């Protein structure tokens, strides 16, 4: 019976999808925008020998550059116009969020509604341009000093090359920022997340080929590869379960009389996610811990002794690296959750609209209750993120599994897929309601 009901629901969804022309247009627009993005990751940066950068990435790909190259879908390795990808925009968004919690003027804008949100988005765009320009200048200076077996990376170094690199890379990031906003507005899903998602997915075939090649050469046994793929499927299922988990806090609204009729009195639920911070903690943690390895790689072992010692202790799989990795993930989980969810503000909004939690007094008591619940949810969420990120780190360090199978990349892929599917289902449901409204209007006219 259950399978028959599921089959019937699937057939209904297929029928709705065939009729939902607006949804199909949105999906085609999203696919077209992502194809444009992938084509841009192959347009080379002018005046640079990309073979030198590829050689350098092969030697030092385990550092922070390897992580950014994974997010950019190989654009950094190939030194294309999208080498910076969308990461400056994400950095700017996080900075604006943190500043909104610290600066009263930005916090006031956040409370103004749609107009305040537009101003904050504009500030985020300006900050994106500044961050992208600084990063592009750093890349230009680094490329001028880079030499490989093929010769220097830059054909004609100088200020003209630096200016050209800054304009090109910053323009590429601004274009991706605009493209992500267009996907969000006219497509399906969050545009920024889908751009990162497509970059990670584009490298998965190469990562799988590398894994199978390790099995063919005997570096990894066939039994281990099969076991690894089974573990990957189980981890993905675990991520789906935990990302969908939330605590439903009951909120009651009192009855009120308007004229001769009574309104309100219904009870609703406020869902509090188990993992409120998302993938931000592992991204922050990886960026911080990979900085020493990146600096040591560029110094060619000529740096100070303390840097060499730190790099060795913070290598993948080392005990100090694992301890710091887990500790920083837990810290950033609490920190970022405190930034994005304000118990006092939520309690005040409930009180303003007449809502209350049964058994809890409105105001400060409600804020304390939210803080109590959120602290315990964040503890479980932080431990879940830590476990998901540590298991791939052990496989990467001890068995040479490709970097693309890390916990951060798996969480991003699963979260973006779930969010996109949810939006598709929401569009199908809206289309179904529109059809029911049209039928009711036709029946009313015929009567």
What do you see in this structure?
- With 447 residues, the protein is mainly α.
- It folds into two domains: 19-200, Orthogonal Bundle (Preprotein translocase SecY subunit), CATH 1.10.3370; 221-399, Orthogonal Bundle (Preprotein translocase SecY subunit).
- 74% of the residues lie in helices and 6% in strands.
- The chain has 17 helices and six strands.
- The chain has helices spanning 2-19, 21-40, 50-60, 64-71, 75-78, 87-102, 104-110, 114-144, 159-186, 191-217, 222-244, 280-299, 305-313, 319-340, 343-352, 364-399, 407-446; strands spanning 147-148, 151-152, 246-252, 255-258, 261-264, 267-273.
- The protein has a two-stranded antiparallel sheet. Strands 3-6 form a two-stranded antiparallel sheet.
- Strand 4 and strand 5 form a beta hairpin.
- Helix 12 crosses helix 14.
- The chain is globular.
SSE blueprint:
Layout (H helix, E strand, L loop, with lengths): L1 H18 L1 H20 L9 H11 L3 H8 L3 H4 L8 H16 L1 H7 L3 H31 L2 E2 L2 E2 L6 H28 L4 H27 L4 H23 L1 E7 L2 E4 L2 E4 L2 E7 L6 H20 L5 H9 L5 H22 L2 H10 L11 H36 L7 H40 L1
Antiparallel strand pairs: 1-2, 3-6, 4-5
Helix pairs in contact: 2-9, 2-10, 6-7, 6-8, 7-8, 8-9, 9-10, 10-17, 11-17, 12-14, 14-16, 15-16
Number of strands: 6
Order of helices and strands: HHHHHHHHEEHHHEEEEHHHHHH
CATH class of the largest domain: Mainly Alpha
The main sheet orders its strands as: 1-2
Give the helix proportion (percent range).
over 70%
Which ranges are low-confidence, i.e. pLDDT below 50, for 5 or more consecutive residues? none
Oligomer: single chain
Structural class: mainly alpha
Tally of discrete structural domains:
2
Radius of gyration: 25 Å
- In CATH, the homologous superfamily of the largest domain goes by the name SecY subunit domain
User: Beta-sheet strand percentage?
Assistant: 5-15%
Q: Which CATH architecture of the largest domain?
A: Orthogonal Bundle
Here the CATH topology of the largest domain equals Preprotein translocase SecY subunit
Q: What is the makeup of the main sheet? A: 2 strands, antiparallel
Shape: globular
How much is the average pLDDT?
Answer: 78
User: What's the number of helices?
Assistant: 17
End-to-end gap: 39 Å
């Amino acid at each position: 019976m259950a399978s028959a009901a599921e089959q019937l629901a699937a057939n209904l969804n297929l029928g709705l999808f065939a009729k939902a022309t607006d949804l199909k247009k949105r999906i085609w627009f999203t696919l077209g925008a992502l194809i444009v993005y992938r084509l841009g990751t192959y347009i080379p940066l002018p005046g640079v020998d990309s073979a030198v950068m590829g050689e350098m990435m092969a030697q030092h790909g385990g550092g922070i550059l390897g992580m950014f190259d994974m997010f950019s879908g190989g654009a950094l390795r190939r030194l294309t116009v999208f080498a910076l990808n969308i990461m400056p925009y994400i950095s700017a968004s996080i900075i604006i969020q943190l500043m909104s919690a610290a600066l009263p003027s930005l916090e006031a804008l956040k409370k103004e509604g749609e107009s305040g949100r537009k101003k904050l988005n504009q500030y985020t765009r300006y900050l994106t341009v500044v961050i992208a320009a600084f990063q592009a200048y750093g890349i230009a200076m680094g490329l001028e000093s880079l030499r490989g077996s093929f010769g220097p990376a830059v054909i004609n170094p100088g200020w003209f090359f630096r200016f050209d690199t800054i304009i090109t890379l910053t323009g590429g990031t601004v274009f991706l920022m605009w493209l992500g906003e267009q996907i969000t507005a006219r497509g399906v899903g969050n545009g920024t997340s889908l751009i990162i998602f497509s970059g990670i997915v584009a490298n998965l075939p190469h990562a799988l080929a590398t894994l199978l090649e390790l099995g063919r050469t005997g570096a990894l046994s066939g039994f281990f590869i099969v076991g690894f793929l089974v573990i990957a499927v189980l981890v993905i299922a675990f991520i789906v379960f935990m990302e969908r988990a939330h605590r439903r806090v009951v909120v009651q609204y009192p009855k009120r009389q308007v004229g001769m009729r009574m309104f309100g009195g219904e009870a609703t639920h406020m869902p509090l996610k188990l993992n409120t911070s998302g993938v931000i903690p592992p991204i922050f943690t990886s960026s911080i811990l990979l900085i020493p390895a990146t600096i040591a790689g560029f110094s060619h072992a000529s740096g100070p002794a303390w840097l060499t010692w730190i790099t060795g202790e913070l290598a993948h799989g080392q005990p100090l690296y694992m301890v710091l990795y887990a500790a920083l993930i837990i810290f950033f989980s609490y920190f970022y959750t405190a930034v994005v969810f304000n118990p006092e503000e939520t309690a005040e909004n409930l009180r303003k609209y007449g809502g209350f939690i049964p058994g809890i007094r409105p105001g400060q008591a409600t804020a304390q209750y939210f803080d109590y619940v959120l602290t315990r949810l964040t503890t479980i969420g932080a431990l879940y993120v830590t476990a998901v990120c540590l298991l791939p780190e052990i496989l990467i360090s001890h068995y040479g599994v490709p970097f693309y199978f890390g916990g951060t990349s798996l969480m991003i892929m699963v979260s973006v897929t779930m969010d996109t599917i949810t939006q598709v289902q929401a569009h199908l449901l809206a289309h179904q309601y529109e059809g029911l409204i049209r039928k009711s209007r036709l029946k009313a006219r015929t009567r």
